[in-house]
Specification:
Blueprint: H1 3-12, H2 23-57, H3 66-95, H4 97-115, H5 121-149, H6 152-183, H7 188-194, H8 203-209, H9 214-231, H10 238-244, H11 247-253, H12 255-276, H13 282-292, H14 298-327, H15 329-348, H16 354-368, H17 373-377, H18 388-397, H19 400-403, H20 405-417, H21 421-428, H22 430-437
Length: 451
Amino acid sequence: MNASLTTGAAELSGVPWYRELNRDHWRVLMASFMGWVFDGYENYSLFLVSAPALRELLTADQLGEMSIYSGIIVASMLLGVGSGGILGGVVADYIGRRRTMMITILVYSICTGLTGFVQSWPQLALFRFLAGLGMGGEWATGTTLMAESWPTRARAKGLGIMQSAFGWGALTASCVWYLLASRGGPGAWRIVFFLGVLPAFFVLYLRRNVKESEKWLEKRQQRRDLKTLQSSGITLSQEQNIVAGFTLASLFRDPQLRRTVLLCLLMSLGTMIGFWGVSTWIPMYVESAAKAGNFANPARWGALAGVLFTMGSIVGYVSAGFLADLIGRRGMLLFLFVGALVTTPFVFLWTHSPVAIAIAACVNGAFTLGQFAWMAIYSPELFPTAVRATSVSVVFNGTRFVSILGPFVGGVLITRLGGFTTTALLFSCAYVLAICAVPFLPETKGKPLPG
């Protein structure tokens, strides 16, 4: 029976959305979810342990500018994530979503494990860059595989749940560090990275249990047929050229695709700068507030803030999918962007004790990190199958090359301006850019993916 007819019948009969899912759907969710859990762990662990790691790796005369070195380390990882993300998206459109996911997980897990052996801050920057190459590529493949595999009515909810995996991974990292911070000794931060090698074993599950996207398999054959026609001298239509051409070039050559991707990049820029330029400083900010208030074990307060911030983000991730189906994709976007803009001053301006800041960070996390879910839910619905992995990867990773300046410039400004507050409020203005782009994009609620 036709899938759209099946979905329509299910809706009319009042069958819950999850009843449309079979074993293969759940396996795809498991694969994408766990890949992103590991990614979240690898990613967030750096922010949790950067202060103790740099205190061990920097010389005495460099410690006074620790925030600058921390910004350099984060920027190097962002450069890797952005580069690997775009490359991974392009590769996934040619060799498949499943195979690319396995490669990227192996890359980031092995390189994270090796990070535990570093002996200098340049080595830390290098291995965070290499791990970033895998982290960026994994998201695009998992998102695309989920979007192409799940039924229309369940898709947004499933992708929101998948996106929450980053929060669970970050929460795992936060909990690991919370336990190690007070018991593990000076080199405890290395254990956090050593544990990051475990995702490599998950590749065995992917090989045995996850099927390739049928939409991609059909498009791969179509691409081969069109290239054969093209080589014989037959002129292809505009739509056929999108399929036959190099994905990255097709994305920007076609006027409609180019307009859509540029608007999405504007929203992505707001999301990326808001997180990497503002929220990543929360653990360090709370730690400094604890020191100023003479609280015992300031590092533990920073770790606690990381846990609460991440718990809030999980609520935001999961809620986004249900919210997108309730008030529409554009309504979801406005809710998340405005919420992030409004809650940032609560963290950095209107609260002062470590306890109050940590609570405010939990609420802020629901918006600041939760808004990353729009890229998983919305962007696959805007682009055709032939360029879908490339396009969602460009949207998710393209702005990282600009947001690299967030932690680097942020580190400089924090040092020069004498604190976190002014810098955080300045960077939070990036959310205004995202809000301005929303009215110019189409509403895709309830619509099937483009062919």
